């Protein structure tokens, strides 16, 4: 049963969406009419409210809804990449994951949910404004108890060892790749986000010097479809390139000069 202080997603029949926190005496103004918070209190997720000739549906906030509603000052990791990263890093309950940098906290939220209830995400950010914003956003989404935020530049080193997975999303990743490798357990996995091709090339050259194997580079594309069953086809627009993702696995000694095996 919903109560004041709960967050809900309001979904209108035309596809419009609003995320609100229920507050006494407040209302949400929409083009279908006003939705008074007091009319939502006491209802359940999945219930609806009548607005003139239309309906407003009361839904729980999913992680994708949360991501696109975040206050942000940086480019976020898109859901199409986020899900793939979580699977490729094999992040699960109980894992210790290190993230650098925190950005707006979108990937932090996804990692925290994946390692909960027993795991931990340690998120490094060198800029105080991003550090504070990421903390606020993760607290809004939940699982903040599984996250430790550190205001620190990882060029000074990191405090963790025996890390299960490492997510590196910084403007210049190459200087930090040795830190990533040194922090991981044997068999630990890493992902390096590279928006441009020249960054990927620099990362690959540096990885040759490190004890890593199974290096792979991926780029993901998805297409949304139109809903008209008589004219079913892809939407006219799609999200194109967002980033390249470089994955690999740490080994205890040796490593593979992967370019010679292709």
From TrEMBL:
It catalyses: adenosine(58) in tRNA + S-adenosyl-L-methionine = N(1)-methyladenosine(58) in tRNA + S-adenosyl-L-homocysteine + H(+). One of its GO terms (cellular component) is tRNA (m1A) methyltransferase complex. S-adenosyl-L-methionine binds at residues 125, 153, 169. Keywords: Methyltransferase, S-adenosyl-L-methionine, Transferase, tRNA processing. GO terms for molecular function: tRNA (adenine(58)-N1)-methyltransferase activity. Belongs to the class I-like SAM-binding methyltransferase superfamily. TRM61 family. The lineage of its organism: Bacteria, Thermotogati, Thermotogota, Thermotogae, Kosmotogales. CDD domains: AdoMet_MTases (cd02440). It comes from Kosmotoga olearia (strain ATCC BAA-1733 / DSM 21960 / TBF 19.5.1). Homotetramer composed of a dimer of dimers. Catalyzes the S-adenosyl-L-methionine-dependent formation of N(1)-methyladenine at position 58 (m1A58) in tRNA. Its EC number is 2.1.1.220. It comes from the Bacteria. GO terms for biological process: tRNA methylation. This is tRNA (adenine(58)-N(1))-methyltransferase TrmI. Pfam families: GCD14 (PF08704), TrmI-like_N (PF14801). PANTHER family: TRNA (ADENINE(58)-N(1))-METHYLTRANSFERASE, TRNA (ADENINE(58)-N(1))-METHYLTRANSFERASE, MITOCHONDRIAL. InterPro entries: SAM-dependent_MTases_sf (IPR029063), TRM61_C (IPR049470), tRNA_MeTrfase_Gcd14 (IPR014816). Residues 68-226 form the tRNA (adenine(58)-N(1))-methyltransferase catalytic subunit TRM61 C-terminal domain.
